[in-house]
Specification:
Largest sheet: none
CATH class: Mainly Alpha
Helix content: over 70%
Number of helices: 6
Low-confidence stretches: none
Distance between the termini: 34 Å
Number of strands: 0
CATH topology: Arp2/3 complex 21 kDa subunit ARPC3
């Protein structure tokens, strides 16, 4: 029992390091056309892995750990935006996956997660600035759709390269 728990803790540590590396890599990329603050969300690949193969608790834990990293590297407001987006995203994926009568594809769940990540951030931004940015909603929805598709496709592409012992198959693999 202890060996299994230590194994999961060490795996989460490695995954968190990977998420930090993705976040750093992403901050170095300059993508023409993206507005300030918009990112591809490469570290969300790690959160999706945690959620789909290690369970809900691991998904939420990774979202919180990523937010703590953002607080330490980009400041409190950015960290809180990361936390609200991450919690909204994981919760939306969990709820939609639970409520759907059919198994949804990873890309669909990724799009839902990306859109709700943006919604969570927008809701928190509303309370931080006392201004609700209605005009920004369409931009965030389109961005969430595009980024969700890209992240979902990347996730589906990397699944076969993850060793089977690290895919506990909490959900069946879907192509």
């Amino acid at each position: 029992m202890i060996d299994q728990k230590a194994s999961k803790v060490s795996l989460m540590g490695l995954l968190f390091a990977l998420a930090m590396a993705f976040s750093y890599l992403e901050s170095m990329l300059v993508i023409p056309g993206l507005l300030p603050g918009m990112r591809l969300g490469l570290s969300n690949l790690v959160t999706m892995y945690c959620l789909f193969f290690l369970g809900k608790r691991a998904g939420y834990t990774m979202a919180v750990m990523k937010a703590v990293f953002v607080v330490l590297t980009r400041g409190f407001v950015a960290g809180m935006l990361s936390l609200s987006g991450g919690i909204f995203s994981v919760t939306a994926i969990v709820l939609v996956d639970f409520l759907s009568k059919h198994s949804l594809h990873y890309i669909t769940l990724s799009v839902i997660g990306a859109i709700f990540h943006n919604i969570g951030q927008l809701i928190l931004a509303r309370y931080l600035t006392s201004v609700f940015l209605y005009y920004y909603i369409p931009v965030l929805l389109v961005t969430g759709l595009v980024v969700g598709i890209i992240t979902g496709k990347l996730f589906v592409w990397i699944i076969p390269y993850i060793p089977k012992r690290y895919r506990t198959q909490l959900r069946e693999h879907r192509e």
